[in-house]
Fold this sequence. Notes:
By secondary structure, this protein is α/β, with parallel strands linked by helices. The protein folds into three domains: 2-80, no CATH class; 84-392, ABC transporter transmembrane region fold; 407-640, P-loop containing nucleotide triphosphate hydrolases (Rossmann fold, 3-Layer(aba) Sandwich), CATH 3.40.50. The protein is 60% helix and 10% strand. Helix 10 (219-229) packs antiparallel against helix 14 and helix 11 (231-278) packs parallel to helix 14. The structure holds adenosine-5'-triphosphate and magnesium ion.
Amino acid sequence: MKDSDHTSEPYPHEATKSEPLKLKPEMGAEVMDKLSDGPHSGPVIDQPSNADRQKEATLAAAGGGGGKGADTVPFHKRIGPDGFADALKKGVRAVRRNLMFVMILTLGTNILILAIPIYLFQISDRVLTSRSVDTLVMLTIVIVGAILVQTILDSLRRFILMRSAVEVAARLGAPILSAAAHASLQGNGKEYQTLSDLQQVRGFLVSGTLISFLDVPFAPLFLSVIFLVHPHLGMIVVSSSLLLLVIAIVNQKMTAKPFAEANMAQSRANMHLDSMARNSQIINAMAMVPEAVRIWGKDTAGSLTAQVRAQDRNIIFASISRGARLLTQIGMLGWGANLALQGEITGGMVIAASIIAGRALAPIEGSIEGWNSFLLSRAAYGRINDLMRRSRVRFERLVLPDPQGRLDVERLLYVPGGTKQVILNGLSFHLDPGETLAVIGNSGAGKTTLGKMLVGSILPTSGSVRLDLMDIRNWDPRQLGESIGYVPQDVQLFPGTIKDNIARMRDDATDADIHRAAVLADVNDMIAALPHGYETMVAADGSPLSGGQKQRVALARAFFGKTRLLVLDEPNSNLDAAGDLALARAIQHAKDNKITVVVITQKPSLLKVVDKIMMVADGNVALFGYRDPVLQKLAERSASANATPQEISS
Ligand SMILES: Nc1ncnc2c1ncn2[C@@H]1O[C@H](COP(=O)(O)OP(=O)(O)OP(=O)(O)O)[C@@H](O)[C@H]1O
Ligand SMILES: [Mg+2]
């Protein structure tokens, strides 16, 4: 295994160099057991429970902090692969199983429904001719029983379908959201819409269309009964069914395009609505409401127009097929009467055959009407399937000892998909645990892109980012995430209290951990000054916090837990002088705690507290080294090229 090659290399850190790889075969099972016991283990969450991790952390700490407690270090635990494809398979299997059962019930209902025409036939041909009340009573008792059973079976199958739909939603909701969240890293955020695809599939499972689909296979049963009555009548129904089939195909061809257009326009309108909700302040401040409404209206109108076009055709075809069905029944009555006149069949048979024909054709008609929703649901399922299978590449990974914070960046190249623009061009550097680096450079130099790569939120086209010698792609994602603190350039907080935000929304976070993170980030005083302190509720847009306060809470969030690598993307862009000082102190705290820090900044004030400085220009390292020589070089540069005074002159 390639991963273990790295791990067995001697580390330059005390924590790991004495640790040989010990893999116990039963560990996988043990982890899986824990997964299913943990408080967070719904049917789908593939992470070890937080309680477990905490226990490990405590054990590790008890083992001497340096990781020397050989038996207790959180090491060599395997997490199973993310079972998205498995979850899907299980969900599909459950539905299939239920559908099998529903099929059996459907067989029952369809056979029992034959009781009505048989009853009619018996009454007209036996009871009325023999004038026997006893026969009539007997027949009625039997038919009432049959109808009762039929009703029960029919409602049973609807109950089962409804429960299957709920089961699908319950089983797949969380895995889909989880897979979408993972996939959105490389995607465009559209992945989250897969959840509404699940709604579509769920809706289809309880729709009348599915019932019609299930009934269709029994049409031959009814047809053969009609053939038994008289081949002529059978031929009429068969040709009518074929006609309905042709209508269905033509309908599908004629409506597919406008329905697709309608859906596209609708999803555009929804996306626009989303962005309106996110930018409501801008829209109001700059009086852009009419424009926003117009853009939304254009897409919505487009969707509605296409919808009308499609539905028009759909209604026409549905009417044609309904007409065809009624005409078929009339034709059967007429021709049947003719046959009866010739003495080939009885009047009761004619009526019975006509009713059976209606019963045989109804599901075909229902399928035609619901064809569009079937197509939509099939496409929705296709997208779900796609997402879940694509996410399967998340194979199992060794959980390594918690990192020390050594960072190696090797020949990072980044060319965003679909472009030829090289944004990072073979950038390399190295930081030892506990070192602090300031990254400076002009706007558009690629600093934010580099920062995102360091935390693994975008993947390099080539080259690698290694934390403790291991490529971050090969770390267990949860463990890596807990070891990383990131403050992005545009800070967003989650709706919840400040406490929740600092704790990264974890419900097993202790108050002590939260307080520690706040103290490390030097925001305790600021939070204490708020009327509700740590319990202050933050809205989705960050209110009531100011921009600077938001940045500082985000800094505390970055410090939370076992952070070994901090990446701060212009964390002081909104800070005042006091905030700047607090940030400098926070970086000092990080240094004291041996946390590796990469801070991207445009302000000179921060440069005083870092060990090293890197200047990025055109996606490459223009200058890199210890602080003072780099500052000196920068000063020389700005002195010689007086025409372009650098902001950074110290
Ligand atoms: N996904 C992307 N697709 C295409 N180009 C991109 C993408 N992301 C970033 N860029 C381009 O990469 C360059 C570097 O962007 P980046 O955000 O890293 O700059 P920066 O150094 O952080 O600038 P600033 O100081 O303004 O924040 C810019 O020219 C930007 O247009
Ligand atoms: Mg930037």
